[in-house]
Amino acid sequence: MKSTSDTRYNQRIHVDFSNMIAENIGARGIPESDFTQAMIDLQYAVSQTDSKRDEMKWRDLHSSQDAVLCDVKRIASRVRDRFDTFVVLGIGGSALGPIAVHQALNHLHYNDLPHDKRNGPRLFVEDNVDPQRMSDLLDVIDPRKTAFNVISKSGSTSETMAQLLIILDLLKKTVGEGWVSHIIATTDKNKGNLIKAAQQYGFDTLYVPDGVGGRFSELSPVGLLPAAVCGIDIDKLLAGAKYMDEICTDEFNDNPAYVLAVLSFLSQRMGSNISVMMPYADSLKYIADWYAQLWAESLGKRYDVNSNEVFCGQTPVKSLGVTDQHSQVQLYTGGPYDKVITFIGVETLKCVVDIPKELESIPDIAFLGGHTLNELLSSELYATRYAVTKSGHMNILISIPEVNAFTIGQLLMMFELQTAYMGEILNINAFDQPGVEEGKQATYALLGKNGYGSKLAELNAAKEANKTYSV
Amino acid sequence: MKSTSDTRYNQRIHVDFSNMIAENIGARGIPESDFTQAMIDLQYAVSQTDSKRDEMKWRDLHSSQDAVLCDVKRIASRVRDRFDTFVVLGIGGSALGPIAVHQALNHLHYNDLPHDKRNGPRLFVEDNVDPQRMSDLLDVIDPRKTAFNVISKSGSTSETMAQLLIILDLLKKTVGEGWVSHIIATTDKNKGNLIKAAQQYGFDTLYVPDGVGGRFSELSPVGLLPAAVCGIDIDKLLAGAKYMDEICTDEFNDNPAYVLAVLSFLSQRMGSNISVMMPYADSLKYIADWYAQLWAESLGKRYDVNSNEVFCGQTPVKSLGVTDQHSQVQLYTGGPYDKVITFIGVETLKCVVDIPKELESIPDIAFLGGHTLNELLSSELYATRYAVTKSGHMNILISIPEVNAFTIGQLLMMFELQTAYMGEILNINAFDQPGVEEGKQATYALLGKNGYGSKLAELNAAKEANKTYSV
After folding, report:
1. Contact A471 B254 (CB under 8 A)
2. How many other C-beta atoms can be found within 10 angstroms of the C-beta atom of residue B10?
3. Strand-pair category, B315-318 with B274-279
4. How many Å apart are CA A138 and CA A158, to the nearest integer?
5. Which residues of B touch A214 (CB under 8 A)?
6. Of A240, A295, A191, the residue nearest A409 (C-alpha)
7. Cβ of A325 and B439 within 8 Å?
């Protein structure tokens, strides 16, 4: 499927890692021979990931959801017909995926467009419990014309459940009879609290399959319903994921997710504890946020699978080109050799904008006239890669032919597979998040949940024991 | 002025650094004696910064702008009376400050409010040259009702000048006679291209004073005009900055900017090359972005002031509580000891939102009912600090009594002073950005600007010399 005769090939995304290699960028790069050897030595990461395919249901979402897709489209159609606003209540993976895909594929000022120019209802994704956030949202929506998609696989996400209680109460008061049709639940089919609530009231419900954790759930109903509601072609999104899965199942030298994992491993070993993602397109801005969760939560781990303390995890950093050239690039070129920068470039953007010839008496401005914003953007990407490379800092370029549902599907699957391979290379469990338990339990204790008395005592004792330093 | 008898004291922001100290958090913290000694040893950073007060005009903006404020208010009033939309054309400091202050002090869905509920015209800040961004903006504004604030101190910012050429052409075509009144220029009074363009056409113009670089310019007309246009009390913003400047001029032990600089220095020396800023309020989300520029561009430097290669610079990371508890906190608790996390908490939020008692048959949800979102948010902040501390990771809490113009003014000045002190401690120039020159020149070369032929030859030679690695 990597052959150029595959009709999908001209929409394939590519990875250029020339600027990772010492022979090109100097002593701070990876010697070509190290890379070649590592590609051979670490192949077990691919075969072990492949052998766990049955557990990793997120990998099959592109082909396992025929019946689900009917439900998603049916509900989406109902929402589009009946409501002018769609609000996602969710946090973490339940929010970051929907935001990233919407920003990538819809108008950048989608909510500001008049109704007939939009692809669907207005979209708000509420991923915080700041009371001002809730209050300000309620100032700009009419609950009588709004559908709410409550997303929590476990149904134990306090933030989302608190939002649900507020919205339940609001709908009962403002909509009255029929309020139940304003809520769609996306959750586990069999366990947890949200399915109980959904059954109690009879909400329309979609299910997150087993083996699909929050940060790997964008291609499940978690992401598909918001996408379909806002007019995105979810079949093409899945087709893109399928194409990338096929690419990555083939020969290891032509597997971009594996190449990225090997480069991550080698650069981390050389001291790069920071991974910057810098797309050069506003549409891809929140792909970097989605990736930051995937990378941080999957690979930031105290223990390996044999319970050895490893304290591993690269810190992901979100950046945006060209914007952050005026904020972060000084650090990237002048600062320490502690990071890898992954640029994302788009070959053909959605439109062309000319820079008119004006102010011709001022040469330092006038030279821009006659070019296009597209040329300016691509020149700045080229120039920034050049400057970062010249200063000897490792960097990668991911090239996307154009931003559409098919290429975004590829991109998501590529990063998910890179993360899974990296978990195998580091010998850690990339699919759990034990480090957030402590905070959850402390929150329960502070809110007086039953059974957390001893945790509350622990919190109070810690407070007593500590000396305060402040200014 | 730190005395509790000062009437401003109850609005003073505070820094709690208990969780930086080894006696509280264990071996990965800073021993109290090291901290105490460093506070004495590094005082030169404060006195040297104070002695350069004449060069650092950004520090005096709270008191040096009486005449300027009249101009700002006059122009703001004209814009508010006449236009329904205000667009900032700027990048870097010209965008990040206006965005941060607007998000902090105005409604979170400001542009979505009906006109009579807003504090002023709709605001768009255009800090990229992505053609889709420009095209999508033009879909949602009416140039005949829109004012454009072009901001560039040097007037040589290609991105902003390209935007200006596009908008000039658009206004001439759509507005015709009188189009000049739609543009306000903010730039250097004497040099550069933008002042020439402004004089050629007769734009309303505001000036960025000498000694005020882009990332230190929020309290100059760069930030004050957009703030005043959108109804923010700019006098209170400046009064807050003045209060913090006074606090930091006094006894060094009570100088929060200095304490933060000393803690940054010590933690970096112990291996923390990452600085996370995590406000627990949506209103403060973009303060972290503004800070990321300030910290990265000021302190990410290849050379010290004596031209020694130092490659210094902590990498700033933006995070948002509670949202990123579900994205990044797994890494912060389980990952390496390579970062300091600065939480920002707000004591009194703008509103209180109750969580109603619903779903009482499901105890794991029902325990939330009867609380408020405010309690949930503050409990999660407390719990997350506890979890991060328990895992031995250094963290700081900045407490803000409430988010208002006076406290935001304090916050900006505190971070600016922290950055200036840090420059002195590291013996680097915190006010230049030589590392972005290479990329600028390469862009000029690629766009065929006169005089960059040899740079273009250099780029082509580099391309020839490199071997391509891709997948």
Report:
1. yes
2. 8
3. parallel
4. 20
5. 326
6. A240
7. yes
**Contact (CB, 8 A) for A419 and A294:** yes
- Using the Cβ of B69 and the Cβ atoms of chain A, whether some distance falls under 8 Å is answered with no
Asked if B313 is an interface residue toward chain A (Cβ–Cβ < 8 A), one would say yes
Which residues of chain A from 31 to 50 reach within 8 Å of chain B, CB to CB?
A: none
Q: Chain A contact for B429, CB < 8 A?
A: no
* A210 class by beta-carbon count within 10 Å (0-12 exposed, 13-18 middle, 19+ buried): exposed
d(CA A52, CA A413): 16
Crossing angle (nearest 10°) for helices A373-390 and B131-140: 140
User: How many angstroms away from the CA of A129 is the closest CA of chain B?
Assistant: 6
3-class DSSP assignment, residue B186: strand
Q: Do B128 and A282 touch (CB under 8 A)?
A: yes
Residue A401 Cα distances to A132, A233, A346, B315, angstroms: 41, 18, 6, 31
Closest CA to B267 of B425, B387, B435: B425
B156 reaches A (C-beta below 8 A): yes
**Residue A341 backbone dihedrals phi, psi, to 5 degrees:** -110, 120
Catalytic residue among B115, B326, B463, B467: B326
Q: Do the chains contact at A350 and B135, CB–CB below 8 Å?
A: yes
Contact A274, A317 (CB under 8 A): yes
Strand, coil or helix: what is B86? strand
Do the chains contact at A470 and B17, CB–CB below 8 Å? yes
Minimal Cα distance from A96: which residue of B? B327
Q: Catalytic: which of A126, A218, A297, A416?
A: A297
Q: How far is CA B107 from the centre of its chain?
A: 19
User: A103 at the B interface (CB within 8 A)?
Assistant: no
Closest Cα to residue B274, out of B342, B334, B326?
A: B342
Smallest Cβ–Cβ distance between B353 and the set A134, A358, A459 belongs to A134
Tens digits of residue pLDDT in A65-92: 999 999 999 999 999 999 999 999 999 9
Q: What is the ipTM of this complex?
A: 0.97
B236 noted as active-site residue: no
Q: Report H helices in A300-372.
A: 329-334, 363-366
Give the span between the Cα atoms of B241 and B258, in whole angstroms: 16
Q: Test A470 with B300 for CB contact under 8 angstroms.
A: no
Tell me the C-alpha distance between A175 and A198, whole Å. 18
First to last CA, chain B: 62
pTM of the model: 0.97
Residue A309 a catalytic site member = no
Cβ of residue B108 closer than 8 Å to a chain A Cβ:
yes
| A301 in catalytic set | no
Which of B260, B331, B450 is the mutation pick for testing A, counting most A CBs within 10 A?
Answer: B331
Identify whether the C-beta of residue A209 lies closer than 8 Å to the C-beta of residue A54: no
* Token output for A21: 């290699």
Question: How far does CA A150 lie from the centroid of its chain?
Answer: 19
Torsion of CA A254, A258, A262, A267, to 10 degrees: 100
Q: What is the pLDDT tens value at each position of chain B, 471 positions in all?
A: 456 678 999 999 999 999 999 999 999 999 999 999 999 999 999 999 999 999 999 999 999 999 999 999 999 999 999 999 999 999 999 999 999 999 999 999 999 999 999 989 999 999 999 999 999 999 999 999 999 999 999 898 999 999 999 999 999 999 999 999 999 999 999 999 999 999 999 999 999 999 999 999 999 999 999 999 999 999 999 999 999 999 999 788 999 999 999 999 999 999 999 999 999 999 999 999 999 999 999 999 999 999 999 999 999 999 999 999 999 999 999 999 999 999 999 999 999 999 999 999 999 999 999 999 999 999 999 999 999 999 999 999 999 999 999 999 999 999 999 999 999 999 999 999 999 999 999 999 999 999 999 999 999 999 999 999 999
Given an 8 Å threshold on Cβ–Cβ distance, is A372 in contact with B302?
Answer: no
